[in-house]
Amino acid sequence: MQAVDVYCKFPFSEELSFDDAYIFGEMVQILMKLEEFDDPRLESSLIGYGSVMGWNCLDSYVKKLENAFKTALLRNVYCAVNKKSPDDSDVQQYFKFKLW
User: Fold this and answer.
1) Helix/strand/coil (H, E, C) string of 12-31?
2) CB–CB of 43/76 below 8 Å?
3) Which of 7, 15, 31, 95 could pair covalently with 100 via S-S, beta carbons 3.0-4.6 A apart?
4) Gyration radius of the chain over CA positions
């Protein structure tokens, strides 16, 4: 967890780069491995990583979070990564399809 604390001190720019995605990815890996699903840094790290690399890169993490019933977290991440409102009809259909 100390590594995540160190990574959080990294100054991220407004427009995220692949370097930023690497740092976010490392934080996601650590937090997911330790199953720290309720850590607030997980959501922001998933959003940062997914924003640069795309939603599909989060697939294995999404499955693990689905199995842990973290649907609120998944909804927030999905909307932020895809830059859509949770009230959007397409988003609502996707959430119903995924049973979120």
Assistant:
1) CCCCCCHHHHHHHHHHHHHH
2) yes
3) 95
4) 13
- Is the pLDDT higher at 11 or at 80? 80
Name the band, by pLDDT with cuts 50, 70 and 90, for residue 58.
very high
Q: Pull the structure tokens for residue 2.
A: 């100390």
What is the structure's pLDDT at 13? Answer: 82
Q: To 5 degrees, how large is the angle CA 6–CA 30–CA 42?
A: 80
The full DSSP string for 46-88 is HHHHHHHH-GGGGHHHHHHHHHTT-HHHHHHHHHHHHT--TT-
How far apart CA 25 and CA 41 sit, in angstroms, is 12
Structure tokens at 41: 């840094």
